[in-house]
Write a structure and sequence with these properties.
The chain is α/β, with parallel strands linked by helices. It contains twelve helices and 15 strands. It folds into two domains: about 210 residues, DHBP synthase, CATH 3.90.870; about 110 residues, Threonylcarbamoyl-AMP synthase, C-terminal domain (Rossmann fold). The structure holds adenosine monophosphate and magnesium ion.
Length: about 350
């Protein structure tokens, strides 16, 4: 059966448009909206039918749970049991790019949690997101607003490219500030555990909670169910070249480019300005992702850089890794997933 595509509008977040978006959420429909991490695809988080539409629109496996987004603490009490560790984290980092896993209440539908007894709780630090949640007057369930498996969207246009015809409204909040999804920390065990790295780093969490575990991100059955799926994948294979000295890195890139060109492959390079400036521009499709070591801007540009290759004729991407420290842990987590899970 043919399904009619709806018209998708990118709207400025005026008071009127936020009201219109909130009305759609209340009516059980989907709305894409900006957060400080990436764009979210939102639905009324206490409405099972509405949440199921998210999975259909994204092509998302139903066992990959959604995060609930809140504007204030009073709203959380209805959805989750607020454990003492969570209170400390709320005080230290919320609103901000942190999702806290807590025991759920009976009001949270299975469609949100994929049948788990826990729920992810987040307070986005973005005025449009907060205004939308307040106007809708319900927690908003929202994963990233991309087609499942693709790089998360950090611009309204990226949402449009993936979800055009499937949603009515994309609220335009410009480019996202952080560019990588929230840190996920599970505080339901005595020692808190990071399930997904993000802009709130292990060191920052340790300052508040003391000892922290880190769940392996490549486990066959990861603690954050979504981590087992293909993620962040550009449309062509990506090879990640992890960091070494700048000289060594340049040598490896030159060698790989030469070998690939000998196989008649057109090569994309996603790397620092410094590296790209030293390579022969005629032999590659260059996509600079920021200055070397400027992790904030590399994180913010990461997904748009990956999506740039959608429109380039590169057949393979060589990507420069970053140091695996601080925000670099989150960046390398995404790059490794973009690289290893795609089948050439
Ligand atoms: P996304 O919003 O697209 O970044 O995906 C949400 C991420 O949060 C996925 O990796 C989920 O597996 C994870 N997640 C959501 N709820 C839970 C939960 N209750 N327990 C563990 N992980 C969760
Ligand atoms: Mg996602």
């Amino acid at each position: 059966m043919l399904s009619l595509l709806m018209k998708t509008e990118i709207l400025l977040p005026t008071r009127e448009n936020i009201k219109r978006a909130a009305k759609l959420i209340r009516a059980g429909e989907l709305v894409a909206f900006p957060t400080e991490t990436v764009y979210g695809l939102g639905a009324d988080g206490l409405n099972s039918t509405a949440c199921k539409k998210i999975f259909t629109a994204k092509g998302r496996p139903s066992d990959n749970p959604l995060i609930l987004h809140f504007a204030n603490l009073a709203q959380v009490e209805r959805a989750a049991k607020i454990l003492p560790a969570a209170e400390k984290l709320f005080a230290a980092f919320c609103p901000g790019p942190l999702t806290i896993i807590l025991p759920k209440t009976k009001f949270v539908p299975d469609a949100v949690t994929g049948g788990l007894a826990t729920v992810g709780v987040r307070f986005p630090d973005n005025d449009v997101a907060r205004a939308l949640i307040k106007a809708a007057d319900c927690p908003i369930a929202a994963p990233s607003a991309n087609l499942s498996g693709r790089p998360s969207p950090t611009t309204p246009q990226a949402v449009y490219n993936d979800l055009r015809g499937k949603i009515e409204i994309i609220l335009n909040g410009g480019n996202c500030q952080f560019g990588v999804e929230s840190t996920i920390v599970d505080v339901t065990s005595p020692v808190a555990e990071i399930l997904r790295p993000g802009a709130v780093t292990k060191e920052m969490l340790e300052e508040i909670l003391g000892e922290i575990k880190v769940a392996p991100s490549n486990a066959a059955k990861p603690r954050a169910p979504g981590m087992k799926y293909t993620h962040y994948a550009p449309k062509v294979p990506l090879t990640l070249i992890e960091t070494s000295t700048p000289d060594e890195l340049e040598k490896i890139f030159r060698r790989e480019i030469k070998n690939l060109r000998a196989e008649n492959k057109s090569v994309g390079v996603m790397a620092s300005h410094e590296l790209i400036n030293n390579l022969d521009a005629e032999k590659i499709f260059p996509v600079p992702y920021g200055r070397r070591g400027d992790l904030k801007s590399i994180a913010a540009n990461l997904y748009e850089s990956l999506r740039t290759f959608d429109d380039l004729p590169a057949q393979i991407i060589l990507a420069e890794g970053v140091d695996d420290n601080g925000l670099g842990v989150a960046i390398m987590n995404r790059l490794r997933k973009a690289a290893t899970l795609i089948k050439a």
